[in-house]
Design a protein that fits this description.
heterotrimer, A mainly alpha (190), B alpha/beta (298), C alpha/beta (675), A: 190 residues, mainly alpha, 0% strand, globular, C: 675 residues, alpha/beta, five-stranded parallel β-sheet
């Protein structure tokens, strides 16, 4: 009955993931029940279900996990999180895996990082996001061939006054930028 | 009753109809929404994909700039609501998050103590604070004859909302039952619309949108009521392309719940920005309600 | 004259010695603790040789006090008290200190653990010098027993005792005894008919000369202590005179008011406003449900009263309180089913053909609403495919963290019944299949032969939202088949939810009445999980069956019999020892403020109004010390826990802080502490 700390027996990747996810320690309690993989609206498209990903994290299969499409299928609907019988913050773990995959150059088969970067680029410049700018910039650089499909939709949005061509800007952009700069310093720019 | 109001970026442009109807409904019901001065974007899901601390710090700026007397912050958008609430809760339950976020905020001369501002969703406010009695009293036009499918989506109800069931929410159902509408109890009312997936993988997103439209059509809904700009955009603006993709023919108007609530409160379509949606809702509402009225008077 | 203290430090194999330097502790005690004349360490103090060591030292070394540093006194205090007695020393001159649970098991650093063990030994040695010889008292044991709960566990206990010749009062809340087992169709793993093996026991209990049945009754109040409890039972008004009723059933037949039976039929069938829950009910006396009776609604009808041939219907009948004296109490109050509405994604209550396990039992039961035919809610369609979902509300931190233990086997039973009765295809969705009792694994093997599909995956949702033509009109069960790692959808006609077994809603309340505690989940806590599974921390109160934790029928029967055996042992012995560790009030100095009266959790303090003082009823006192610490005049003393003893213990523990020289006991501890 002498209790030892078992942290040292965990795979290195496991420790890394839970460190990057508030509440992630619960991952140690995964029953491998699959309620996450069963719940996911995009589950059918996943190379590995979240449950499989958790087994792979335990087995320290770092590259396999970070190059999987699983987290890029995640739409943050949180069904897996609220249904998980072990209260593992699964959606947050998916965010953590996305961050790691981007930082380490694994996320090459998805446009999600590009969309995210374009989006936050506007936030950092203006303090607000800017739908027209986001769509045009993102599609121009990433999916130029898809742009024409969107033209009719864009025009009908425009016709109903739902597309603004100029961004709004907050007064204290400098303050926001200072906060972001500091956060990147503390958190390690990713 | 007075609340601080966080409209969010979508309500400034693509989903201005939501903003217009929220403000009109607030006036009609007699509660005051004071727009938070110089609020910034919540980052949607995009900052969490890149840097968690930046994500929470950007969101926390909004909480930190609430004045002492602004203790309740109302967000109509699902992503804004979740991000504000999640950040407050993360700071409350994880002291390292609280310290780091405050360190970042300090670079902008700000500070936030978790729990100071209570983040509320607009539906909760109308359901709980205004309540059944007052709504019945203020409603001048019955919605009888209209079959509505309340659509809750994901991020208002999950992972935590504090006012409704996370699997099978009921508050919007109840609200429109009070107002006389026939509420459609369809099974996918809290399922996902695909979120930003429409811009990343259309195949994946269109399948999710199809499931929602199919179910609402199967249950013979006249229209779908949304409480999130992203859900409204996906179901409305992409409806035609989804129909083409699956060889279907949808004509299902998608509006914000505040727009139909406004109709019940006697406001006209223009005051509620009905007509800004791509699949027009006005004719359906008019036809169903006047058919009912004609039937009643005959 | 100075006391002569012997100190014995146990290694407990490596349990203690693996973390505490036991030799050093013993050596140190011998050299540094005042009045210690013998200090030894030994591999297993609880062994015969260890005990003999104590006995011999008392005789040969003239020990007047003994300290054993080992495990918890819960385990071995009795052992070493006996050793002291055998050596000729009063057993209460022993002090045990726990250097296992409180020290070696909970610390990582050997040096620090060893220092703590020294402090604990020093504390015990200082305290033991002030202990006084005490003599236990004995009281007679009332041979009558109260059994609460007439399910299979309570019935077993009742019959074991009654057959042994002892009187039993059996209290049951429902109109009939039988419990959940009476609702079941078949029992696993042998598939014998539940009613066929249960009803003989029910009727035996109903007619046994030694059993007094109190059906439709509840335990209201308990006072007294082991051997002599006083209990109050509320006999709820049946509105039927028990002595006049012949059980002919005319009243039930003629009653015009039908209501849904949410109890026995689990909502699957109807009953009348006056009813017997099922044909073999014991006692065969109906109960009138005043909530649904027309007479109680608007003073009309009265058909039952008019037509009863013996005039047994009495609308004016009221609840009755019955007082009984019993020697022991067996609690066998069973379980309640998990409310499946709490998991909306499984659709229970919304999707018609989603059933709970109890509903399905009634559906299968030949005496149930469909005469045992497995049909959908429309009452006519035989399902072609059935899904069984395990762990509904069990092994789930959102509901109950524990495993409900019976559901795996019950779901196998259901799969068999579906296959046998309908030929339908069965999918059974599990996380782990647990078949860990005799012949259970064999039953699982049999189901594999029968062609049941076992899908390893916790079901995510059950929906009627069809995505394709073959799903239309079906219930779709969505889950990850974890063995192939793919999300799958299974269109079926019927879904059975294997809901968790939960403690009764009022389990804590009843526990408080009887002085027993509950686990976090709400199941009663046994005295020792392995070695004393049916006793509780309150002498004379025993537990049996699912009220102590989820359990199937065989395990409940075992516990019922075990509890009866424990009680029979007490009755046979005839007397029970009352620990002399009780409080005493110095009546000379008692101001009669009565603060202690209300604080005593055992109602053991009485106020003498004439003399204006309080006094302790020794037989009821448990020695908990509440009154001792509450008395503003400090005139209540607790035997074996006097202020002197406790202050000495504290000083002993703090030996190094109080005397930096490192030698405890140089000055007169008692004087320091008493002041």
């Amino acid at each position: 009955m002498i209790t030892h700390s078992t942290d040292s027996h965990r795979s290195a990747f496991f420790s890394e993931v839970i460190e990057d996810t508030p509440g992630g320690e619960q991952l140690a309690h995964c029953l491998q029940c699959g309620s996450c993989g069963g719940s996911c609206p995009n589950g059918a498209d996943m190379q590995y279900t979240p449950r499989t990903i958790f087994a792979m994290i335990n087995a320290n299969r770092r590259e396999d996990v970070l190059s999987a499409n699983t987290m890029w299928c995640c739409v943050s609907c949180y069904f897996c999180t609220t249904r998980c019988p072990q209260q593992i913050p699964i959606t947050e773990i998916m965010y953590a895996l996305k961050r790691k995959a981007i930082a380490e150059g694994f996320a090459n088969d998805t446009d999600a990082p590009a969309l995210a970067k374009t989006f936050t680029g506007f936030v950092e410049d203006y303090g607000r996001s800017f739908e027209f700018g986001l769509a045009s910039r993102y599609y121009f650089f990433n999916k130029p061939l898809s742009m024409f499909k969107l033209v009719p939709m864009g025009l009908s949005m425009l016709a109903r006054g739902r597309m603004h061509l100029k961004p709004n800007k907050i007064r204290q952009v400098a303050q926001l930028q200072a906060i972001i700069k500091k956060a990147k310093e503390i958190g390690g720019a990713q | 009753m007075k609340y601080a109001y966080y409209p969010g970026c979508s309500l400034e442009s693509g989903s201005a109809a939501y903003d217009v109807s929220v403000r009109a409904v607030a006036d009609a019901l007699g509660f005051e929404l004071e727009e938070l001065d110089d609020w910034n974007c919540c980052g949607a899901t995009e900052y969490f994909t890149q840097n968690e601390l930046v994500a929470t710090s950007v969101i926390a700026r909004n909480l930190a700039i609430c004045r002492e007397d602004q203790t309740q912050l109302v967000a109509p958008c699902a992503a804004c609501f979740l991000n504000l609430k999640k950040t407050d809760q993360l700071m409350a339950t994880h002291s390292h998050v609280k310290c780091q976020v405050n360190e970042a905020l300090a670079a902008g001369g700000l500070h936030y103590d978790p729990g100071r501002v209570k983040v509320r969703h607009l539906l909760d406010l109308i359901y709980t604070d205004i309540g059944e009695a007052k709504l019945r009293q203020k409603a001048v036009k019955s919605l009888k004859g209209l079959r509505v499918a309340p659509y809750y989506g994901c991020q208002v109800v999950r992972p935590m909302n504090g006012f409704d069931n996370t699997e099978y929410p009921m508050k919007m159902d109840e609200l429109f039952t009070w107002l006389g509408a026939e509420v459609v109890d369809y099974p996918v009312k809290a399922h996902c619309c695909g979120g930003h997936m429409t811009q990343i993988s259309e195949d994946a997103a269109f399948e999710l949108i199809r499931r929602l439209l199919d179910s609402a059509v199967e249950y013979q809904a006249d229209l779908i009521l949304c409480m999130c700009p992203m859900c409204q955009l996906n179901l409305d603006a992409y409806q035609g392309r989804v129909a083409n993709h699956f060889n279907k023919n949808y004509q299902l108007p998608i509006i914000f719940f505040t727009q139909l609530l406004g109709v019940a409160l006697g406001l006209d379509f223009q005051q509620l920005a009905i007509g800004k949606e791509i699949v027009p809702a006005g004719p359906v509402i008019q036809a169903k309600l006047s058919a009912q009225a004609a039937g009643a008077s005959a | 004259m100075a006391e002569r203290v012997g100190v014995y430090v146990c290694h407990c194999g490596s349990n203690i010695a693996g973390k505490v330097d036991v030799e050093e502790v013993a050596k140190w005690a011998g050299e540094h603790v005042k009045d210690v004349v013998v200090a030894r360490d030994y591999k297993f103090m609880c062994s015969d040789l260890g005990q003999k060591m104590v006995e011999d030292d008392i005789k040969n070394e003239g020990l007047t006090r003994v300290v054993v540093a080992a495990c918890s006194p819960h385990l071995h205090e009795k052992t070493f008290r006996r050793a002291c007695k055998n050596g000729g020393l009063n057993p209460y001159l022993l002090e045990m200190t726990n250097i296992r649970e409180h020290c070696s098991w909970v610390h990582k650093d050997t040096a620090a653990a060893t220092e703590k063990a020294k402090a604990l030994v020093s504390a015990a040695a200082e305290r033991v010098k002030f202990q006084e010889p005490l003599e236990p008292t004995y009281v007679d044991v009332n041979p009558t027993t109260l059994v609460v709960g007439g399910g299979i566990a309570g019935l077993q206990a009742t019959l074991e005792l009654a057959d042994a010749g002892y009187p039993v009062h059996l209290v049951e809340r429902q109109p009939s005894i039988g419990g959940h087992m009476a609702q079941f169709d078949k029992t696993f793993p042998t598939l014998d008919c539940s009613a066929c093996i249960l009803t003989p026991k029910m009727s035996e209990a109903g007619q046994h000369e030694n059993v007094t049945l109190h059906a439709y009754s509840e335990l209201e109040e308990v006072s007294g202590s082991v051997g002599n409890f006083k209990v109050k039972i509320r006999q709820k008004a049946r509105k039927v005179d028990f002595d006049l009723c012949t059980g002919c059933g005319v009243c039930v037949e003629k009653c015009p008011r039908k209501v849904v039976d949410t109890e026995f039929e689990a909502g699957m069938g109807n009953r009348k406003a006056i009813y017997m829950p099922f044909p073999q009910a014991v006692p065969r006396v109906p109960v009138l449900d005043t909530e649904s009776c027309i007479w109680f609604e608007r003073q009309r009808c009265g058909a039952c009263q008019k037509l009863c041939p013996t005039n047994a219907i009495n609308f004016e009948q009221e609840d009755e309180l019955i007082e009984l004296n019993v020697g022991n109490i067996i609690i066998a109050t069973g379980w309640k089913p998990f409310d499946c509405h709490k998991i909306p994604q499984y659709g229970y209550g919304r999707l018609a053909n989603v059933y709970t396990s109890l509903e399905f039992e009634r559906l299968c039961n030949a005496a149930g609403p469909t005469n045992g035919k497995i049909l959908l809610r429309d009452g006519k369609t035989v399902p072609k495919s059935v899904a069984i979902i395990h762990c509904v509300g069990s092994r789930d931190l959102n509901h109950n963290p524990y495993c409900s233990s019976v559901c795996c086997m019950a779901s196998l039973k259901f799969a068999h019944l579906v296959t046998e009765k309908t030929g339908a295809e069965v999918h059974s969705f599990y996380i782990d299949i647990r078949t860990n009792q005799k012949d259970y694994e064999e039953f699982y093997q049999r189901l594999l032969d029968e062609g049941v599909h076992f899908v390893r995956g916790k079901v995510s949702e059950v929906t009627d939202a069809a995505r394709s033509e073959n799903e239309r009109g079906k219930l779709i069960v969505q889950a990850e088949d974890t063995l192939i790692g793919r999300q799958q959808r299974f269109p079926v006609d019927m879904v059975i939810l294997m809901g968790a077994l939960e403690p009764q809603t009022d389990a804590r309340e009843l526990g408080l009445k009887c002085g027993i505690s509950c686990s976090m989940a709400g199941f009663y806590t046994e005295r020792h999980p392995k070695l004393d599974p049916v006793a509780t921390m309150t002498d004379g109160v025993f537990v049996a069956g699912a009220c102590q934790g989820p359990k199937d029928i065989p395990a409940s029967v075992v516990q019922g019999a075990a509890a009866a055996a424990r009680v029979a042992g007490m009755i046979t012995k005839g007397k029970v020892m009352i620990e002399p560790v009780v409080a005493a009030i110095d009546e000379e100095n008692c101001s009669g403020c009565r603060i202690c009266n209300n604080l005593c959790p055992y109602n053991a303090i009485e106020y003498d109004a004439q003399r204006g003082v309080s006094h302790v009823i020794t037989a009821l006192c448990k020695g908990c010390g509440t009154c001792v610490s509450a008395c503003p005049a400090e005139v209540i003393s607790g035997a074996h826990f006097s202020n002197k003893q406790i202050y000495a213990e504290i000083e002993g523990a703090l030996w190094d802080a109080i005397r930096p020289a490192g030698v405890p006991g140089e000055s007169e501890t008692a004087e320091v502490s008493a002041s």
